[in-house]
Amino acid sequence: MEDTVDHLAHERSKAQFNVEEMKIIWAGSLHALQVSDRIAKLVASDPGFGKENRAVLSRKDLFKSALKKAAYVWKRINELGLSEEETSWLRFYVDELAYDYVHWGMFVPAIKGSATEEQQNKWLPLANTMQIIGTYAQTELGHGSNVRGLETTATFDPVTDEFIIHSPTLTSSKWWPGGLGKVATHAVVYAQLITDGKEYGVNGFLVQIRSLDDHFPLPGITVGDIGMKFGSGAFNSMDNGVLRFDRVRIPRNQMLMRVSKVTREGKYVESNIPKQIIYGAMVYVRQTIVADASIALSRAVCIATRYSAVRRQFGSPQNDQNGNGIETQVIDYKTQQSRLFPLLASAYAFRFVGEWLKWLYTDLIQKLEGNDFSTLPEVHACTAGLKSLTTSAAADGIEESRKLCGGHGYLSSSGLPELYATFVPACTYEGDNVVLLLQVSRFLMKTISQLQSGKKPTGTTAYIGHVEHLIQCGCNVKKAEDWLNLCVILEAFEARAIRLLVACAENLTKFANPLQGFSELSPDLVEAAVAHCQVIVVSKFIEKLQQNIQGIGVKQLLETLCYIYSLNLIHKHLGDFLSTRSITPKQASLASDQLRSLYAKVRPNAIALVDAFNYTDHFLGSVLGSYDGNVYPKLYEEAWKDPLNESVVPDGYHENIRPVLKQQLQNARL
Ligand SMILES: CCCCCCCCCC/C=C\CCCCCCC/C=C/C(=O)SCCNC(=O)CCNC(=O)[C@H](O)C(C)(C)COP(=O)(O)OP(=O)(O)OC[C@H]1O[C@@H](n2cnc3c(N)ncnc32)[C@H](O)[C@@H]1OP(=O)(O)O
Ligand SMILES: Cc1cc2nc3c(=O)[nH]c(=O)nc-3n(C[C@H](O)[C@H](O)[C@H](O)COP(=O)(O)OP(=O)(O)OC[C@H]3O[C@@H](n4cnc5c(N)ncnc54)[C@H](O)[C@@H]3O)c2cc1C
């Protein structure tokens, strides 16, 4: 008989805050909570969205199952007449990577961002109704980070009014685009534009790659899948592809011409729109990836927290003299708390900074419509930097969550290995994290150099305008409680960031060649960029706390999490804080003392804090993280489902086990 006991009920009863209100904070609004909750339940109750066995399916079967699910998603969206908001929640909870992620996540945004109105009117209705399926073909075998170095060419032929798309070398083969391998019918292809014998840099072109009748590649096109990727399940449901062009002709009006165009006569004409708008789809996706990072991390933390409350090891004070009695919940070990609770705090921190980044991006789009490009460099730096910071921390946090679950965390049924394998490439796609931090540091060095000309930094760099104060100020913390002051914390982060940035700027002046200086100092520049991004996350968490937060205990708990997030970072980056004299060794030790008290405050609320994510068991996909905490029967049951357990004596016994055993027996007799 099924066990219906809530093994975590006692933990839930200890919560000191209103969980329902916290759910609203996490979701963003009551409306968002209601819609997401309704769609989560719809997905969880529909057998068409079941995700059992993913880890044991062969690549072909996994891919087929992802295709089936993507088609079913599309069918249900249309049958139910879901709104755009409901649709995105549906895809989110279905939780299986397929071509539709890149179609909706990159192909459509690339057309919206880089095509003219006329082009959008032609292509968007086709894409929006999935009469065509698209991919984003930028990266090549030889070049990913260095977009300017792409080799694919698009040469204008004035005789036929066409572009000739060509892959001149092996390394120019498009490599990685998702959905390209087996599904996409069209691609936005990034290529070097050549007209009238001159090169005009990278531009986007809309190219049909497969027939809409029989799905065969069109003449001149070679296309296929690039092969198995890291981990079982995970990104292997996606057909990342390779694509080569042998002088493929497309009409001139399939160059995405919002930013610049080629006339009928072959003249290249630039508009007053910055060229970087061509990279707009990347800015858009980087912003969404910050939200993905908080989801992926919160998911891992939810599993690790629930399991840590169920799992017991060693004796406890309640034991009798013989050590008999109840063992200690591993969540009560201080080491477990010091590893787990900062991750919990980070999940909340990333959620809030992601929410703010979405606002910043929406604001940019509105400004762009009025031809105001002033915030583009800052938005580029914020999306690049925060994508880098949050994905690196989330990937590390998922792996730490696996370790927090001990041996069982390594089982596929814990959900953690696949979550890690699916999420870890986010550190690479949409820009390698180090390359992106170098972009941030370039922006910051420019901001600092402009101080001399009297330009006042604004937005996320406003603190750089207070350079004199921040270079000189000292931290006033004298006892552990003094750290419970958000202004003190923010100033310590700003002081550390600015001191690292100014040191980089000063060191750069020692090089006659600025490019060489930038290259030599790049490890320091990356560290300074991380410090700046941490200022953003901490300050946005603090801004969140200043909003009208309802519900008993909710604000207090969020404050506790904000302190944990910040003080743990001080602990982790102590070298920076000490070497820049932003804090003293004594203050560092007081921060550690304060962290211990903060962990004690979180402990009774830990389960409720992960309940506030409102994840269904279907979405979590983990026997260790299920809501009821009924871990052991689920683990036991799951093991028996493995294909190896379908027969008692394994296939191959007669060929490969019995002869070995016999030989051992004969050897022993000799
Ligand atoms: C059951 C288990 C299932 C588990 C599920 C778990 C769920 C987990 C969550 C996962 C969820 C979803 C997954 C979704 C699927 C995602 C699919 C992935 C799709 C990936 C797509 C891609 O990767 S597309 C390719 C992306 N490529 C890159 O990002 C390349 C990186 N390189 C660059 O961006 C540039 O080339 C670089 C900026 C590095 C160029 O440098 P450089 O050459 O030095 O600079 P220029 O090009 O000359 O630029 C000069 C100026 O332009 C400014 N600038 C640069 N870029 C931008 C920009 N994007 N916007 C605005 N401005 C820009 C730059 O700052 C310079 O300015 P300055 O003023 O002149 O200094
Ligand atoms: C799962 C997945 C999905 C993807 N989907 C798509 C897609 O749909 N469409 C698409 O076009 N692409 C896609 N990509 C490609 C992705 O965008 C690139 O892999 C990414 O931009 C990194 O580029 P790269 O592979 O060339 O890395 P490289 O640049 O070769 O990086 C290798 C190493 O060199 C370092 N490095 C590189 N340049 C510098 C520098 N200037 N300074 C210091 N260090 C440097 C990096 O830090 C890294 O350690 C996908 C990739 C993955 C993994």
UniProtKB/TrEMBL annotation:
Q: Which cofactor does it need?
A: FAD
Annotated Acyl-CoA oxidase C-alpha1 domain ranges read 279-445
Report TM segments. Answer: none
Q: Where is the Acyl-CoA oxidase C-terminal domain?
A: 488-662
UniProt xrefs under InterPro entries: ACOX_C_alpha1, Acyl-CoA_ox_N, Acyl-CoA_Oxase/DH_mid-dom_sf, Acyl-CoA_oxidase, Acyl-CoA_oxidase_C, AcylCo_DH-like_C, AcylCoA_DH/ox_N_sf, AcylCoA_DH/oxidase_NM_dom_sf
Q: Where's the Acyl-coenzyme A oxidase N-terminal domain? A: 18-133
Gene3D superfamilies in the record: Acyl-CoA dehydrogenase/oxidase, N-terminal domain, Butyryl-CoA Dehydrogenase, subunit A, domain 2, Butyryl-CoA Dehydrogenase, subunit A, domain 3
Binding sites annotated in the UniProt record for FAD: T139, G178
Q: What Gene Ontology biological process does one annotation of this record name?
A: long-chain fatty acid metabolic process
Q: Tell me a Gene Ontology molecular-function term this record carries.
A: fatty acid binding
Q: Which UniProt keywords apply?
A: FAD, Fatty acid metabolism, Flavoprotein, Lipid metabolism, Oxidoreductase, Peroxisome
Q: Which GO terms describe its cellular component?
A: peroxisome
Report the subcellular localization.
Answer: Peroxisome
Q: Which residues form the active site?
A: E430 (proton acceptor)
Q: Which family does it belong to?
A: Belongs to the acyl-CoA oxidase family.
The identity of this protein, by name, is: Acyl-coenzyme A oxidase
